[in-house]
Write a structure and sequence with these properties.
This protein is α/β, with parallel strands linked by helices. The chain has helices spanning 53-56, 291-303, 318-327, 356-373, 395-409, 449-467, 494-510, 550-558, and strands spanning 11-14, 17-24, 38-42, 61-69, 77-82, 88-93, 96-102, 108-112, 117-125, 136-141, 144-149, 163-168, 173-182, 186-194, 200-204, 210-215, 218-223, 237-242, 247-252, 257-260, 263-266, 269-271, 273-277, 308-310, 330-334, 379-386, 414-418, 433-437, 471-475, 514-520. It binds beta-D-glucopyranuronic acid. Beta-D-glucopyranuronic acid (BDP) is lined by residues 152, 313, 386-387, 437, 475, 520, 537, 539.
């Protein structure tokens, strides 16, 4: 699936802006227009734009509607593309259902019939259950439906990302797959999905100089003395594909990722990941995307000398990957398999909870994710789940299928992010790299960093000794109220966050199988209401409005 673009063969028109909107129940009929529409901004989560709890925490359907007119181009194909729609979406043109999509963090793209004027209706459903990703319990209380989320971020919903109306010529270029291999020279192999008969390609180097040409739908181009894509060096090549009818430019990088013994290698050199688990989360627009805010996040990542981040706990907006490609940042790309534990003794991998239907959906989302992001050099790894109950009896069978499916989609290393201890873990041997989330000194042994240090070291050693795989500590951190100071340091103070993170880093420095550290979290973020969350999770190194806490200055020095 290619991102919409404009060139002399393609037209793409942004549909961002004001849409009509309403709350609805399951009986909503899209055959007629919304009766009393509310105006809504796209892209954004609708939740925090309202002023009542009923609207903010609405469970069920909402409707987005836009009246459109098409330019008079009747050949080729008109399409609609939503960057995401949370979580389930039905898309209608003049009341006719054209597309259904399950999964709130990946694009929806569908063809529409040519009509001079029409009404586009998107009915979204934010209900989650045991068969969706993320996982949640759908309950009823006092006649009201409740989505009891088993994950620690607010269930924002809406049209969160860019929406495009775009036009493709006849026999368009449907997809481009690019793979690179570094030998003496670089080998760039490509595959073009199109019904067009004649295909010509050329490769431009990062300075826009033509460095290779070929024809045919499948081919390999040799590039002498390639400029490698690397950390901080977003060297991007461009594959220009031309079919007579259609034209598309797809960027790619030449780089090689390998996992060898206890190390992760980028272009043959050992790397150490420094960065964060993040969230798409902002004041007012919630999970909505906005280029300016993305730029602020990238400027902070660069300021603090981070080299990587994990898209915890779902695929991010495509612009984040485009920026990472250009700036040379590494991404661990996570599918929204989160909430696969209930923090109780219930076995969640079972027929009535996380079952075959969930697994099918999990695989489908991995397929869509790899399909969307396959050509981004910034993506160095896929994470198939966050904190699943991998100690359970049926977890191994579930994840065997998930891993083999993912391996059939990509050659990149695969990670699973764990919370359970090494001894009881039944799944981590399937991964190339193990992600570990650790909160010793926070959720346990609070305030006692001396004991925590001993326990943490033993815990990480146990993981390596059992699995012999590189470990990335994918989460560690403390809730920290910006401006709260305390000497000696106590929980929630900026000093405690510094002491805790320093202690963890001392342990990592002693263990050569630790291949990276991602502090939890990049910034404070919204969660559901809860007695351990004061207006959200406060483990950010930056506040929710993207200003540094004390720890940010320490990390900046340390990660230099
Ligand atoms: C981990 C989760 C993450 C939470 C974090 C926390 O992976 O989503 O936000 O803990 O408790 O369990 O802050």
């Amino acid at each position: 699936m290619l991102y919409p673009t404009n060139n002399n063969k393609r037209i793409s028109i942004s549909l961002n802006g004001l849409w009509n909107f309403t709350f609805a129940d399951d009986s909503y009929d899209p055959k007629t227009s919304i009766k009393e529409p509310i105006l809504m901004g796209v892209p954004s989560s609708y939740n925090d734009l309202f002023t009542t709890i009923k609207e903010r925490e609405h469970v069920g359907n909402v409707v987005y509607e836009l009246k459109l007119q098409l330019p008079e181009i009747k050949t080729g194909e008109w399409r609609i593309r939503l960057g995401s729609a949370t979580h389930k979406a039905k898309c209608y043109i003049d009341g006719e259902l054209l597309s259904y999509h399950n999964g709130g963090f990946l694009p929806i793209d569908f063809a529409i019939p040519y009509k001079e004027k029409f009404r586009l209706t998107i009915v979204l459903d934010n209900r989650l259950d045991y068969q969706t990703l993320p996982i949640a319990s759908l309950k009823e209380e006092n006649g009201k439906e409740i989505v009891d989320t088993h994950f620690d971020f607010f269930n924002y919903a809406g049209l969160h990302r860019n929406v495009f109306l775009y036009h493709l010529p006849n026999n368009p270029i449907e997809d481009i797959v690019i793979k690179t291999k570094i030998e003496e020279n670089a080998l760039v192999s490509y595959k073009i999905d199109t019904l067009a008969e004649k295909v010509n390609v050329q490769v431009l180097d990062p300075n826009n100089k033509i460095v290779g040409k070929a024809s045919g739908k499948i081919g390999t181009i040799t590039i002498a003395k390639p400029l490698l894509w690397d950390i901080g060096k977003g060297n991007l090549y461009t594959l220009c594909v031309e079919t007579g009818n259609d034209y598309y430019e797809e960027t790619f990088g030449i780089r090689e990722i390998l996992v060898k013994d206890k190390d992760i290698l980028l272009n043959g050199k050992k790397i150490y990941l420094k960065g964060f688990g993040m969230h798409e989360d902002h004041i007012t627009i919630g999970r909505g995307t906005y280029s300016g805010l993305n730029i602020r996040d990238f400027n902070l990542l660069r300021w603090i000398n981070a080299n990587s981040f994990r898209t915890s706990h779902y695929p991010y907006d495509e612009e984040m990957y485009i920026l990472a490609d250009k700036l040379g940042l590494l991404i661990i790309n996570e599918v929204p398999a989160v909430g696969m534990n209930f923090w109780s003794s219930t076995e969640v991998f079972s027929e009535n909870i996380i079952n075959e239907t969930t697994k099918k959906n999990h695989m489908q989302q991995l397929t869509e994710l790899v399909n969307r992001d396959k050509n981004h050099p910034s993506v160095i790894m896929y994470s198939v789940a966050n904190e699943a109950n991998t100690h359970e009896r049926h977890a191994l069978a579930y994840f065997k299928d998930i891993f083999s499916h993912t391996r059939s989609l990509t050659d990149l290393p695969i990670m699973i992010v764990e919370w359970v201890g090494a001894e009881s873990n039944k799944v981590a041997q399937l991964a190339d790299v193990i992600g570990l989330n650790r909160y010793i000194g926070w959720y346990v042994n609070l305030g006692d960093l001396e004991t925590s240090k001993i326990k943490l070291k033993a815990d990480l050693n146990a993981y390596y000794n059992k699995f012999k795989k590189p470990l990335v500590i994918t989460e560690f951190g403390t809730d920290t109220i910006a401006g709260l100071h305390s000497l000696p340091s106590v929980s929630f103070s900026e000093e405690y966050q510094v002491d805790f993170i320093k202690m963890y880093k001392e342990v990592f420095d002693e263990l050569d199988f630790v291949s990276g550290e991602h502090v939890w979290n990049f910034a404070d973020f919204m969660t559901k209401q809860g007695i351990t969350r004061i207006n959200g999770n406060k483990k950010g190194v930056f506040t929710r409005d993207r200003q540094p806490k004390m720890i940010a200055h320490f990390l900046r020095e340390n990660w230099k």
